[in-house]
Every structure is written in C-alpha cells, then in structure tokens.
From TrEMBL, chain A:
Name of the molecule in the record: Transketolase subunit A
Record CDD domains: TPP_TK
Domain Transketolase N-terminal: 2-258
Gene3D superfamilies to which the protein is assigned, alphabetical: 3.40.50.970
UniProtKB/TrEMBL annotation, chain B:
Cofactor: thiamine diphosphate
Family that this chain belongs to: Belongs to the transketolase family.
Annotated organism of origin: Bradyrhizobium yuanmingense
Domain Transketolase-like pyrimidine-binding as annotated: residue spans: 1-163
Pfam families given in the database record: Transket_pyr, Transketolase_C
CDD domains: TPP_PYR_DXS_TK_like (cd07033)
Protein known as: Transketolase subunit B
Key words, A-Z: Thiamine pyrophosphate
Length: 260, 319
C-alpha cells in the first residue's frame, strides 16, 4: 500500500504524504478485516459505513479501495489530474467506496453520528467508523459530535484517531495540546482503547471486540508515526503536504520503496 | 408563521416516517405534541449547530428528511461550512427552518438579526431559498418541502403577520405569484415585505399610479420567466427586502435582468436595509420604518424615482 501511495505522489508530483502513511495499517485492517463491505455492491444498505474525516489522508484510502477493486488501480496514477476521479480530498459520488466528501476538518464525526443514529432508528445492524486526525480534533465541532454520540449511547459508532503527534505546522503539543487525550474522550462518554496504530495484530484485536462497552460509542486512539515507512518523512512536518517534489525527495521515495 | 411551520412538521411527520424534527435548544415546549406522538423523531440536540447540520446530513444520507430548526443567524452564520459541505455539496434533503428572519429579533440586537442570510444561503450551489409572507403561505410551502430534492433554507417571519396570501394562488417552489398586475411600477417582494408592498400600492393608487406586485417567495431558484413577463411595459422596477443590499432579492433580480436581457429593462430601485449592522433596538416594525421600509416611505421613494425617471417604456425582448 505504501508503494501505491508513493506511486500516486510521484505521478502527481504532490500529495499529503505524511498523513496518508500514518494511516496505512489502520485503513488496511479496518477495510480488510472489519468492515462488512462488497466492492461489487458499494451501495448495499447493510454495509458498514466508514468515513475518512481527515480527508487529506485520502491517498491511503485510494490505495486500499483500488487494491480491493472498488476502481481500477490505474486510477491511482491520475491522482489530482484534470479528469481524475481522485482529488486531493475524497468526494462522495466521484469515488466508489467513499461515503462522504471530506477535506474540511471536523465534519466526519457528526455525519457518522447521523449514520449511526439512522441505523438505530431503522433497526439496522450496520456499524459506522470515522477516521479522525489528531490535528483535526482541534475543531470544536468534533467535541459537539462526541457529546451527541454519547447522549444517544451510539455503541454502533467508532472513532479512530490517527494520533501521529504532528499536524501541519508542527507538534500537536505545540500547536494545541491534546493531552490527556484518552481522558478527554472518556469524559465525553466514550469507551476508549489505545493501540499501536502500526501493529496489525493489535489493531485487529481491538477492532474485533466492538463495542468496547455496550451502550457507549468507542474511541480508539491509534498511536502512529507520521510519514511511517518513508524515512525522510517520518515525524517530519515538512512532509505533511507537498505540492511539488524535488529530485532529492523523489530519490528518498525511490530508496524507500524501490523503483516501481 | 413559526407556529404554523412547526405544526406542519408534526403533520408531515404523521404522514411520512422519513420526517424528523431536529432542534438545537428551542423554546420550552416546542412541538410538544410531536414529541409525545413521535418521541424518536423529535430530537433536541443542544447548542451545537455545526454538529447538528453534520448529523442531519448523515440522517439524510440514510433516507430521512430532517427539518432543522433554530434562530436564523445561528443556522446560517454559525455553521456555514457544514451547510455548504455537508448539505449542499452532497445535495441532501435537509430543511433549515430559520426562526426570526430579518429583523424579527430587533430588541435582541445584531447577533440575532438575520440581515444577510438570503445572500449567503443563495450563494451556495444546490440550495433553495424560500421566504413565505404569512402563516397561510408557510403552511402551503411546507407541504411542498417533503419531496424537494436538495437542501432548503426557509426564512420565517415573526408570526402574527397579516394574512395576505390567497389559497387560490397556490404555492409552488420556484414559482412567483403575481399579486397585482403590473402598471407604471412593478414591486418585487419576498417574505413579509409583501404586506408593505400591498399597502404602498394602495397609497400609490390614491395618487393615480398603478403598481403591480410580484411576490417572489422563492429567491432561489428565481422565477426569471415570471419576472421578465411582469416587467413588460412598466417604467420602474422596485425590489423590496428586509435584508442588506448585497446578495439578496434585489441582487438576484438585477442579476437575472442582466443575464437574460443585458439591457433595455426598466429603471430599477432597490429598497433594502443599509449595508451595516443595526445598532437600534425597538421592534421589527420600528427598524423597518427607520430604514425607509414602511408603506408610506416605500410609496414616497417610488414617487420620487418615477419623477426622476423620464425614460420611456422600454421595448423588452420576450423570453
């Protein structure tokens, strides 16, 4: 998947590199081992819903959806191109498998509350997963949504937080400290799990035991490394977003994942 | 008008299980009867407008038709990005019922006065903007909202506004209602400015001036065909709105004329609130009067404009 992500970056000469690479294992385990979805029937009313609320991490999602056959792998090469279905943020109706258009931060959890509440009201068994960035949860609307989810006791709703500790400018601790993060989610009425977001087995275990507590929404804080797998980008805010790549940066990609 | 619109939500909910009421923190007892009859579809979600709009989007994605209700300024300014992205970009059937459009909350000051809501809502692709003139029209309008595709912004007046709409005119979203045939003047109104236009037309009639009235309850999509039909032969086109001059009804009408005709349309007078926040309290009526939107002031402005305008009736193209 990292090769696919970096292939898109190389083709387009741009992309949110670090925010996609920290998400890889989260997306892989969620879509492969947890979500009840069928690439041949992406509109199945009983499918589980997943929203990438940190829409700027879309390269990871695109790689996964292409790999799973939601659309051809060749689409990845057109990332951000004039006629591509794959933009710099994912769009509902454009990309098969994308449940909501995201990119503006702080929207996904509220939409997820609506989806989960609808499942409750309609007595349907689908579950709703929302992937959030750590910088994203600076947005007050996320905490409004958290209160709403807890009010309704939405144990069919799961928030996964990609806690890579870096946002666009720099460390989350510097920009707007989040700690004590687990306590925050707990105090907002969520059952909280913490996991190494790159440990596939650990992620699988946590995501196989849902809801963590009956009657409560679940928050899974995934400790990750921004830019994971590309040494030059790891824990380096400079790789949050690239709108052009230098020769040395292209070399760094080539060294990390080989020629492809 | 507000009670009527609220009661219509209850009525629609009884008819269609997709209908939800979602309030933020409305007045005590709002839709109490609905909360008793349909407790699961009467949702009070707190002073969290950004979240409520997103949540409504999620519910609408699953086939519900949420009617979201709070004060107009909070439903437009506070959560504009959610309205733009979650509702309009996804083109979802969420209905925004905005209490206190215009200067209804005059005594509560500028934080509660929705003076630019039409402009910012109509700027959004896929959004429909409706301003009913009275309770009867609000009831007819609500009937039409159930199956309308895409989001709707509904700007409600104060309540107790004089009933001037007529059942025989019916109501169709996007179809203007010709209340009086065009004469020397055509007034185009939206919302509760219709009442003032009717009174101003009577004053003008006493001066021997014939004034037509086209009630544009739907500001978006604008009924351009009705507008172009109604301005034939008029000397002066007047727009009336309880809104700042930028981006509201007057702007929409001017844009339509320029886009459709380019030139050769009647002289135009836009009567509106000034381009500033109100720093006076009092009442809706007193603020409208202060800004030249009483019936008498409207009639006077029109007389002056007619006197200043010596252009002959233009030859208009047909649509």
């Amino acid at each position: 998947m990292r090769r696919l992500v970096l292939g898109s970056v190389r083709s387009a000469g741009r992309g949110h590199v670090g925010p996609a690479l920290s998400l890889i294992e989260m997306v892989r385990v969620l879509y492969d081992d947890v979500l009840r979805i069928d690439p041949k029937n992406p509109g199945d009313p009983d499918r589980d819903r997943a929203i990438l609320s940190k829409g700027h991490g879309c390269l990871a999602l695109y790689a996964l959806l292409a790999d799973r056959g939601f659309f051809p792998l060749s689409e990845l090469d057109g990332f951000c191109g004039p006629d591509s279905i794959l933009g710099g943020h994912p769009e509902y109706g454009m990309v098969p498998g994308v449940e909501a258009s995201t990119g503006a931060l702080g929207h996904g959890l509220s939409i997820g509350v609506g989806l989960a509440l609808a499942a409750r009201m309609r007595e349907r068994s689908y579950r709703t997963f929302v992937l959030l960035g750590d910088g994203e949860i600076n947005e007050g609307s996320v905490w409004e949504a958290a209160m709403g989810a807890a009010k309704h006791g939405l144990d069919n709703l799961v928030a996964l937080i990609d806690y890579n500790k870096l946002q666009s400018y720099g460390p989350t601790d510097y920009v707007l400290p989040l700690e004590p993060l687990a306590d925050k989610w707990r105090s907002f009425g969520f059952a909280v799990q913490e996991v190494n977001g790159h440990d596939v087995g650990a992620l699988r275990n946590v995501l196989k035991q849902l809801p963590a507590v009956a009657g409560k929404p679940t928050a899974i804080i995934c400790h990750t490394v921004k830019g994971k797998g590309l040494p030059a980008a790891e824990s380096n805010a400079d790789w949050h977003h690239k709108n052009k790549l230098t020769d040395s940066e292209l070399d760094a990609i080539r060294v990390a994942v080989g020629d492809f | 008008m507000r009670n009527t619109a609220m009661n219509m939500v209850h009525k629609l909910a009884a008819r269609d299980e997709r209908v939800l009421y979602i309030g933020s923190d409305p007045g005590a007892g709002t839709l109490r009867a609905m909360s008793k009859e349909f407790p699961k579809r009467h949702l009070i979600e707190g002073i969290s407008e950004a979240h409520i709009i997103g949540m409504s989007a999620g519910l609408a994605m699953e086939g519900f038709v949420p009617y979201v209700n709070t004060i107009a300024t909070f439903l437009t300014r506070r959560c504009y990005e959610q309205v733009a992205v979650d509702l309009c970009l996804h083109n979802l059937p969420v209905r925004l019922i905005a209490n206190g459009g215009g200067l209804v909350y005059a005594p509560l000051g500028p934080t509660h006065q929705a003076i630019e809501d039409i402009a910012i809502m109509r700027a959004l692709p896929n959004m429909t903007v409706i301003c009913p003139c009275d309770a009867d029209e609000a009831a007819r309008m609500m009937e039409q909202t159930l199956d309308w595709k895409g989001p709707i912004y509904i700007r409600l007046g104060k309540g107790g506004d004089a009933i001037v709409s007529k059942a025989e005119h019916g109501f169709e979203i996007g179809k203007a209602i010709l209340m009086r045939p065009p004469g020397d003047v055509l007034m185009v109104t939206t919302g509760i400015m219709l009442q003032r236009a009717l009174a101003a037309a009577d004053l003008l009639a006493a001066q021997g001036l014939r004034a037509g009235i086209l009630h544009m309850h739907t500001v978006k999509p604008l009924d351009t065909a009705a507008l172009l039909q109604a301005i034939r032969g008029t000397r002066l086109l007047v727009t009336l709105e309880e809104h700042v001059p930028s981006g509201g009804l007057g702007s929409a009408v001017a844009e339509a004329l320029i886009d459709k005709l380019g030139s050769g349309f009647p002289a135009m007078l836009r009567l509106s609130l000034p381009d500033r926040f109100m720093h006076n309290y009092g009442s809706q009526d007193s603020l409208l009067k202060k800004h030249g939107l009483s019936a008498g002031a409207i009639a006077t402005s029109i007389e002056h404009a007619l006197a200043a305008s010596h252009t002959p009736s233009p030859q208009l193209h047909s649509t």
